[in-house]
Amino acid sequence: MVHTSTTATLQPLVTSLSLRDAISAEEVALIEGLARRRRVLRKGEELVSQHSQPVESCLVLSGFTAREVVLADGKRQITALHVPGDFVDLHALLLKIMDHSVVALTDCEAAYVPHRELLRVMACSSHLGRMFWLSTVIDGAIQRAWITSSGRRSASAHLGHLICELYLRLDAARLAEGGRFTFPVAQSELADALGFSLVHVNRTLQDLRATGFVSWKGSVVTILDFEGLAAFSQFDPTYLNLVKLPR
Amino acid sequence: MVHTSTTATLQPLVTSLSLRDAISAEEVALIEGLARRRRVLRKGEELVSQHSQPVESCLVLSGFTAREVVLADGKRQITALHVPGDFVDLHALLLKIMDHSVVALTDCEAAYVPHRELLRVMACSSHLGRMFWLSTVIDGAIQRAWITSSGRRSASAHLGHLICELYLRLDAARLAEGGRFTFPVAQSELADALGFSLVHVNRTLQDLRATGFVSWKGSVVTILDFEGLAAFSQFDPTYLNLVKLPR
DNA sequence: CGCGCAATTGATTGATGTCAATTGGAGTGG
DNA sequence: CCACTCCAATTGACATCAATCAATTGCGCG
């Protein structure tokens, strides 16, 4: 069952953009003036389907989502994790055809904004246009970091790097506190994000716990020593662009 | 020794953009009207340095380049390969700080366009602005494909997938002919792109040759059976967006 | 011919996947 | 409250894959 309504504040998007550059009151008004529909999705539902040709782009308001590709032999790869405030398929505005799908890892809410509306707002504010562009470009930077982890980091550093990344992104979205955040995702899904087998995720998690940098109980992740974990995982937060600059 | 001059046609860029959407005569004029400086780089030189804050973006006119990250322990990961016509650090227009460097894998020529010039042209043509955005978003799609290869494909399928991708990209740039292209890159560099050890690249290449899909002698790569290689590597070219569509 | 670099090979170690079983915890019906 | 069920987490044993170390070969060039 899909719930749809028109009431939804786009505050998470404003918050996310404001982390990277000042967003004026006029720009906030433009954003809040975007026509959109709201959907509530349950864990496992697709927000956007592979091969579809979206005419609207999808913004996550709450919950965790992932981009995933399923190969012919049934193997699955998650190529990105998204947190509230992320415009998960903004790139569909230009790509036209989705080469992957976006799924809900937890129950979540999303706002769908017609491409026509995005173009209208970008015509009013080229700065907002650049901020939208920026958000797709940050997604790309995160993907490069994943490629690096996958190719050249040990299994525990790969996982540790992901934990550091998630923590900073969630903290920026005010969804983390004191090194702790909730990440209600099964180890099998983590496996698909890391490119590991399920068993290997489990053992890597145990290795990481043994270092004392991280505690992970149920869906609560606690970073006990961020500096230590970051050094161990060779994590450099520059690529997240959590810096307010004129763009 | 760095050679610099101001004469350089940006035709490779026009060709690349024209693959994805019609580019009008006016738009071509706008592109050719971009102020820029030209540099000739030798194999191994850096086009753009990690941690730098570019005020111009770099377009490859000829030769192969790569984005690379070097970790503290000396391990290297190549996160993207670029072919002539690619705007390799267009994203620096928004990211401001480079989280990786771009290096020349072969001797090559590049044009550097000041960000101010890009903003000027985008103000004249919002369509060109979207085409620039598109090119960064295609880079992102390629990166997702790399993540998928790295995480969920066998070593030979990973390499096979990369060969299919390079072939189509080079073919689109008119740098391939009859399944054959020149790729003067050492196995050690291929290793850094695939996230393999050098020895493993060598053996994977032998496996792939044994399938009969590919011949790779010196720097000449010949795809003997594209359909077979694509099926074997689960290669679906959709993500390359080599389709002319209104964007 | 001999140098130097890239490609190749062999042997071994270590990391990771697979298969199969067991444990643990939350929810459910009796 | 207890037994039962289901699913996720965990463990053990083993097979494979891939990294490492250490030669050796092949080739272009002075």
Question: What order do the helices and strands come in, and which of them pair?
Answer:
Two copies of one chain form a homodimer.
Chain A (H helix, E strand, L loop, with lengths): L2 E3 L5 H8 L6 H8 L4 E5 L4 E3 L7 E7 L2 E6 L5 E7 L9 H4 L5 E4 L3 E7 H10 L1 H27 L2 H18 L3 E2 L2 E3 L4 H8 L3 H14 L2 E4 L2 E4 L2 H8 L14
Antiparallel strand pairs in A: 1-2, 2-8, 3-7, 4-8, 5-6, 5-7, 9-10, 10-12, 11-12
The first copy, chain A, binds a DNA duplex (30 and 30 nucleotides) through helix 8.
What can you tell me about this protein's structure?
Two copies of one chain form a homodimer. Chain A has 247 residues and is α+β, with helices and mostly antiparallel strands. Chain A has helices at 11-18, 25-32, 92-95, 115-124, 126-152, 155-172, 187-194, 198-211, 226-233; strands at residues 3-5, 37-41, 46-48, 56-62, 65-70, 76-82, 101-104, 108-114, 176-177, 180-182, 214-217, 220-223. In chain A, helix 4 crosses helix 5 and helix 6 (155-172) packs across helix 9. The N and C termini of chain A lie far apart (41 Å). The model of chain A is unreliable at 1-5 (pLDDT under 50). The interface between A and B is large, with 52 and 52 residues. The structure holds a DNA duplex (30 and 30 nucleotides).
CATH fold-level assignment of the largest domain in chain A: Jelly Rolls
Strand order of the largest sheet of chain A: 1-2-8-4
Largest interface between protein chains, with number of residues from each side: A-B, 52 and 52 residues
Radius of gyration of chain A: 18 Å
Q: What is the CA-CA span between the terminal residues of chain A?
A: 41 Å
Strand content of chain A: 15-25%
Which stretches of chain A are poorly predicted, pLDDT < 50 over at least 5 residues? 1-5
How many structural domains of chain A?
Answer: 2
Main sheet overview of chain A: 4 strands, antiparallel
Q: Name the CATH homologous superfamily of the largest domain in chain A.
A: Jelly Rolls
State the helical fraction of chain A.
Answer: 40-55%
* CATH class wording of the largest domain in chain A: Mainly Beta
Number of strands of chain A: 12
- Multimeric organization: homodimer
Large-scale geometry of chain A: globular
One letter per element, helices H and strands E, the order of chain A comes to: EHHEEEEEHEEHHHEEHHEEH
Helix- and strand-based class of chain A?
alpha+beta
Mean pLDDT of chain A: 95
The DSSP helix count of chain A reads 9
